[in-house]
Amino acid sequence: MIHVRMRLIGMTFGLLALAAGTASCSSGQETASGETTVKKSGTVKIAYIQKQGDQQYFVDQANGAKEAAKGLGAEVTVFDVGEDADKAISAVDAAIAQKFDAIAVVVPDQQIGPQVIDRARAAGIPLLASDDVIKDGSGKEAPFVGFDGTMMGEQVGKKAAGLFKESGWKPEETAVLSVTKLDLSVCQDRVGGAWDAFQKEGVTGVKKIDLGADNTVTGAQDKAAATVTANASVKHWVVWGCNDESETGAVTALANAGYGAEDVIGVGLGAYLTCKDWKAGKESGNRAALFISGTEVGKSAAEALVKKVRGEAELPPRTIAKTEMVDAGTWQQAGVVCT
Predict the structure, then answer these.
(1) What pLDDT, on a 0 to 100 scale, did the predictor assign at position 41?
(2) Residue 95 is part of which domain span?
(3) Rounded to 5, what percent of the chain is helix, strand, coil?
(4) 244, 180 in Cβ contact below 8 A?
């Protein structure tokens, strides 16, 4: 009987030891909130899913992520899904199937937030939103890396107001052309912030024309051309938009319509396109731009995801990158990559 008891006690300790050994090899640990922190010591594979991957901002972003990853023992694979929301969802599925360790996503449409978040969550893969905020089905935001849209817009509006005051233009002869993607909340934050700041600087009597476009140069140029024709009585234009593409496209349309550089105040958002005229020494309506660095956003995203996968830190709820206003005399010193 004593021998039987001793054998049972030995088996019990053996099972406990096995359980402890299994736990020590686990790929994760439970946090106080119940969330699993991934722990991986090998190469961390990150999928960076981007909309409009051919735009310079997103090219810089991808390069920044790759550069940061290389120094952290990680690697980044970029998926360019253009403006196709279905491709973005498929890219998330592909990243899961290919066993990527983490995902950063710039969605073409914020409405797919619940789908991409739920897919990654079900697969146990950390995901953060880059540039555009997305939410899950309950309305909770995914961890975010990018810019504060309202603050960006306020800087653009303040600069535009200052340039308008310096111009000596009459308010009744001037119009603001605000070019944006109407179904993208970050765009509404930017142009809304610009208009609020423009007015807070004491500018009154200037009408605003809201123009919906697709955040591309040609899209903005085509839409602006028709708007300018329909408002031929306007002598002077203040232009801003959701991005550099929107602003420079509209400024080009004004130039094609016969408006000289002296009659246009364009303040870009990005600086990677507005700087083209400055680089060429060309007089144009592109007077200034808010420099936003895609490189820094990409680096921040990669660093946050690697820390998460390594089990070193949870994903920060919001990581906001710095911005800087530049013009023809300061863009090079600021480090703008001019395309």
Answers:
(1) 81
(2) 36-142+294-322
(3) 45, 20, 30
(4) no
How many structural domains compose the chain?
2
Average pLDDT over residues 13-30: 36
Co-location of 185 and 265 in the same domain: yes
Q: Residues 276, 163: one domain?
A: yes
This prediction has a pTM of 0.78
319 phi-psi bin (left φ>0, alpha ψ -120 to 50, beta other):
beta
Measure the CA angle with vertex 110, ends 240 and 113; round to 5°.
Answer: 155
- C-alpha distance from residue 170 to each of 23, 196, 235, 281 (Å): 73, 20, 9, 28
Q: Tell me the sheet residues that pair with 327.
A: 288
- E strands, the chain, are 28-30, 36-38, 44-50, 74-80, 102-105, 127-130, 144-146, 174-180, 207-212, 236-241, 264-270, 286-292, 318-320, 323-327
In tens, the pLDDT along 242-252 reads 999 999 999 99
Q: Which residues are registered as beta bridge partners of 146?
A: 320
Q: Which of 10-14, 82-86, 118-122 has the lowest mean pLDDT?
A: 10-14
Mean pLDDT, to the nearest integer, of 45-70?
A: 95
- Say which CATH number the domain at 278 has: 3.40.50.2300
% residues pLDDT > 90 (the chain):
85
212/338 Cα distance (integer angstroms) = 26
Phi and psi angles of residue 192, each rounded to the nearest 5 degrees, phi first? -65, -40
Q: Does residue 83 lie in a domain region?
A: yes
Q: Are 321 and 146 in contact (CB under 8 A)?
A: yes
Instruction: Give the pLDDT confidence of 213-228 residue by residue, as tens digits.
Output: 999 999 999 999 999 9
Are 332 and 153 spatial neighbours (Cβ–Cβ below 8 Å)? no
* Strand 28-30 relative to strand 36-38, pairing: antiparallel
Average pLDDT over residues 250-278: 97
Residue 63 maps to a domain: yes
Instruction: Let me know if residue 288 belongs to a domain.
Output: yes
